[in-house]
Amino acid sequence: MKMPIYLQEPPEILITPEGVRTDGRGPHDLRPIKMTVGVLNRADGSAYVEWGGNRILAAVYGPREVHPKHLTLPDRALVRCRYNMAPFSTEERKRPGPDRRSIELSKVIREALLPAIFVDKYPGTVIDIFVEIIRSDAGTRCAGTTAASLALADAGIAMRGLVTALAVGRVGDWIVMDPNHDEDMYGDVDVPVAFLMEDKEITLLQLDGPLTEDEFNEALDLAMKGADLVYEMQKEALRRPYLVVERSVAGRES
Amino acid sequence: MKMPIYLQEPPEILITPEGVRTDGRGPHDLRPIKMTVGVLNRADGSAYVEWGGNRILAAVYGPREVHPKHLTLPDRALVRCRYNMAPFSTEERKRPGPDRRSIELSKVIREALLPAIFVDKYPGTVIDIFVEIIRSDAGTRCAGTTAASLALADAGIAMRGLVTALAVGRVGDWIVMDPNHDEDMYGDVDVPVAFLMEDKEITLLQLDGPLTEDEFNEALDLAMKGADLVYEMQKEALRRPYLVVERSVAGRES
Amino acid sequence: MKMPIYLQEPPEILITPEGVRTDGRGPHDLRPIKMTVGVLNRADGSAYVEWGGNRILAAVYGPREVHPKHLTLPDRALVRCRYNMAPFSTEERKRPGPDRRSIELSKVIREALLPAIFVDKYPGTVIDIFVEIIRSDAGTRCAGTTAASLALADAGIAMRGLVTALAVGRVGDWIVMDPNHDEDMYGDVDVPVAFLMEDKEITLLQLDGPLTEDEFNEALDLAMKGADLVYEMQKEALRRPYLVVERSVAGRES
Amino acid sequence: MGSQEEVSAASLLREYLRDLASRGERKDGRAMDEMRPIEIRSGLFTKGEGEAWLSLGDTQVLVGVKVDVGTPFPDTPNKGVLMTNTELLPIASPTFEPGPPNEDAVEMARLVDRAFRGSNAIDFEELVIKEGQLVYLVMVDMYALDHDGNLVDALELASLLALKRTNVPKVVVREDGGVTPSGDFFPLPVRETPISFSFAKIAGRLMLDPSLEEEVAADALMTMVVDSQGRVCSFQKRTGAFAPEEIKRALSIAREKWPQVAERLGLLEG
Amino acid sequence: MGSQEEVSAASLLREYLRDLASRGERKDGRAMDEMRPIEIRSGLFTKGEGEAWLSLGDTQVLVGVKVDVGTPFPDTPNKGVLMTNTELLPIASPTFEPGPPNEDAVEMARLVDRAFRGSNAIDFEELVIKEGQLVYLVMVDMYALDHDGNLVDALELASLLALKRTNVPKVVVREDGGVTPSGDFFPLPVRETPISFSFAKIAGRLMLDPSLEEEVAADALMTMVVDSQGRVCSFQKRTGAFAPEEIKRALSIAREKWPQVAERLGLLEG
Amino acid sequence: MGSQEEVSAASLLREYLRDLASRGERKDGRAMDEMRPIEIRSGLFTKGEGEAWLSLGDTQVLVGVKVDVGTPFPDTPNKGVLMTNTELLPIASPTFEPGPPNEDAVEMARLVDRAFRGSNAIDFEELVIKEGQLVYLVMVDMYALDHDGNLVDALELASLLALKRTNVPKVVVREDGGVTPSGDFFPLPVRETPISFSFAKIAGRLMLDPSLEEEVAADALMTMVVDSQGRVCSFQKRTGAFAPEEIKRALSIAREKWPQVAERLGLLEG
Question: Using CB atoms, which chains have 3+ pairs under 8 A with C?
């Protein structure tokens, strides 16, 4: 029997009337981000991403033989994905093993990446994508999708283009970029989004409302702007594998 | 952590000296029964049965290919059965998933139906029988067997004849037909029985005693009488699929 | 909810200055041991061992076909082992099913026996070894390995020789043979060892320290001496299958 | 995996549906933004405190709501608890298998859960018996009975109805800490009417409430939940990819359809 | 599934047994209503509070009874708890696999459970330590060691014996709510002697205590439990179908055989 | 199982490594008793109270230590609790699969557990908050990230480092029995420095810190843990067989190497 020791108090105010957030960012700023590609030796492709307080490893194995065999798709690659949180990634230790949230996110991330992969090029094989959250700090599914997209590219998997993900949200009357831990816990609405950047199609969109139609449209537009910034970092990271690509992307400053 | 809120008190008396039961029936009366065949679109055969407060859906898929393949029987059909109680079928919510009782009843129902099925006609295939208890009110295994037998017939599976099941029991000195919830909980003996009606063979018989030899023989005879009534309803339901066949079968009135 | 009723108090002294132990043995004495080979009818080979308060059944099936097939090794036999404690083998009832300890011991025992088996002689097959602890009283992994080795021989599996296992330990300043339950619970160090007796190679060695280098070497030497005694009993048991081979092996008396 | 014939039959059907879609037509003759008929079966089917047996075309679902009493979550001591569970019963489809919920079932359960949370539909603070210690637990068990496509909307609608019909048994706390039903009931405080709308995209065309054949042939699927004020409370892109304009257009359609569905469910007040 | 040769060997054996049965004979020379020899192994084999290692012909089983202390079920606050568990150990048969109890193991465990409940054999009210709070939990773990047919009767007999031999450790309740053994024991109150009898039907003939070969060849199997007063306490048609007269005849045989088995177990009083 | 080509490539490699070994050489040029370089990555990687990301050659592991509060084991009411868990992440090797720990993962977790217990490294009595009721639970979660052999030493070293770095959050017990962090911390009392050394035997030669290729080609593997006083605290023969002299020799090497590794980890005190 264990008991919780980290019961948290919500902050008094999430955003000031001037738009200053609990971590000092403006409403349209991203948190600091670092990306490194090719961090693992065994995996066919890998990436490590730090995004705010998040720490995420993504790795890809494949195309390879399918086990168990009866899952083989004769005309295209099977794509599997596992999103997994480490026991030490949270304040209170998380029990190892899948729960309902991680089962859903595994599917959501797979479906975010699938439209980008030329699965027809690898019939009868499997591409396994692993997203390991080793430190969690709001927005892991988006940071994980972004990392996994890099790992796919690092593995040399043929793709229509990179997938770039980030969350936007509503805090009171503000539509904000890239919600932090406080905003994720006590904010009003969280909207994770992913784009296939080649044609700006949306491959991941979830929402835990409510948003008016206008707010919804504003949120999608803001997400697109943030994705452009993150996408540049992804491309840079792929140009310089094994080197850390690092930036604190603040809309105000750019 | 949840706590029970429906702890029930037993009734003061289960049966009066004149043989009146807690639901007003006489000792040899059945509860009201409704049967409908062909209620589901996807299943190869289906039936819906209301029996007293019980609500039961049975469905059959097959004969179809066996998965996993190594279970295939080269000379006959494999017959599988799953008896399952819905979480909302009981006063206190039932946790989803099999428990020891449902594992046993799945076997007992399968073995009650198996002697009726011409398994030799479908070598190398599987016939899957599903019994879903959506409202439970004493006698679910018998009502479920009766429903499953209809679903098999609705699926066009070749059979020696219908299987008809019902329980009898002992309450004090009375051998009673079709025990109700009170009698099931607080009565003395419950005897579920199923007959292959073509030749009056018994394909299900359980007992949670004690009964003297005479009582045991009386119980079997009473069960046979009840089965005759239920059997007529089954045949009628099959003659008019998609229509509700309904009757309150009271021995006193017939 | 169940609660423990057998919380035990440690004995006041585990060994006297003269080297007398809680069960009256001297430091280098074995507990009484009985071995019988061929105790089960179905198994291809079997053995029953009483060792102090331990009661252990070992059985071997194989070489036989591998299920599931994909585990088959084309050039040699697959060897599987399951170490299992009965719910009634301990003071407090043990929940059925594998736990971390039994998963580890299953591997440790398999690896203790594997070097003795001519696996090349049985390509594409499996040899299944089962060690059932029905009464546990310190040293079950060693008594189980010893029993399993007999069961393999009884099954006619080609082997380099018998595997003989026993534990030694440190209690205060004494290096003792075959620790008993008190010493296992409250002693300082437990060292289970197994030897492939043909060439005196060590196939099992664990240790839950600390031991100085000298103590470690002394422990290995003492284990070798004990193994010689147990080995003689094993050979005798195999010469007279179905008869009980029984001895209390005290170093002082021999 | 299916045999060669099944595979080519499936791809023929897909071609046919694409063809129809590109002309703005559907196999069952519906308009692109037309839902199948919704029927609510009357009767008593469960031992739930609330229930609904609903069909959407040939898709059938049954939802039962059980209300239990238990301890609140440590971080919300003054709130009742909502739990959702989806069972894709093997009776509903030849492809469903017995066992714990798979990823589709989990996604649907969580989607319905978010529909109610995202719309703040349930007043959880009214579900407290003793702050920090005893609250009502509302368990929504969703059963797929017959699968002809768009299970998720059917399950969400049936859940909404079942929750709106739920009567919570009032309990009194005994001295030993246990609880006893008082015999009184109060209606579960459901303050909003979040309604789920799913769309398939085939050959670049959006179609509302896809049938099973349309789901199988779809390039992309999405589900959104809209409340009485036209706000989007929950969203899930389920498969494939959508252009932002497609998503915005679908939201407009959903907002437009809301009153019609609410009325059909008997939930349109005033 | 076995090779072609195994299949035809099995069907040859089946034919042979049917042939014998139709002449009223059995392969091992027993009469149709004759049980195999029952042996009870002496010694100390477990850490149970009761135990029995029993063989029925070449079938061997081991039953251990553990007595624990715990809370009663909410609906029977003034009764102790009986739990049964069957493990079909992989050492007992080449067809048994490690893992949680399968349907056969569950059926046997529940059948033995009903044998004791149906005969009211155990006085559960004497197993209360503190009403509604603390009772004795009696756990019967049944191990199949060697399977040559009719495991269920062997397990039931061994369980009966083990329960009759069980000594319950008296406990005292400490101030902190925990319990400590007092050092005293009392015999588990087992008031009846329910005995299990299984029958196979081959070629229309009933045979008591079927061997493994007979079980495999049987058209139908049933098990009934009879008490000292000749009452049937538990019944389970396990496979196939029986005419009502066959069942009634089997019950007569079981009632007739009861004293002989009870005596063999040393449980025939006075 | 791998194709024919893979099998023969593997056996060619094995032959090559045996050949080298018999000449006292290794494929990567190391001496037989030479470890690969140990690197400790700096940064903040987890939400653990202690952590270490360590590489041993191309093998990488990450260990996080979480400290919780809970009840002690009934038989050690005055001691804190240590728990170890190993996850062989599927990112680390093409042969690792998602799922609960397999026998290799369990063996490693228990081996590391014994390393700390066997050396009495942690002062568990300092981890009691309220005797018999509340203690600190120290959970060591070991993640294999990249597998190039000898995971067990890498995991043990990283665990040692993570434990030495662990700061325990002091808690105060509230009136309701719950706990609240006081804001203060104290270092986990780790009193010893048990270091793990693994050896492979190839062609009769012992080699320290085997690479993945060497592990696969090895005839036998063993791991031992040595403390600052040169005592052996834990031992595990993992595969194959060793002569007693080989084991004694390996222990001498491990004792000799201890200071070098302790220094590399920054744990060699003045």
Answer: E, F
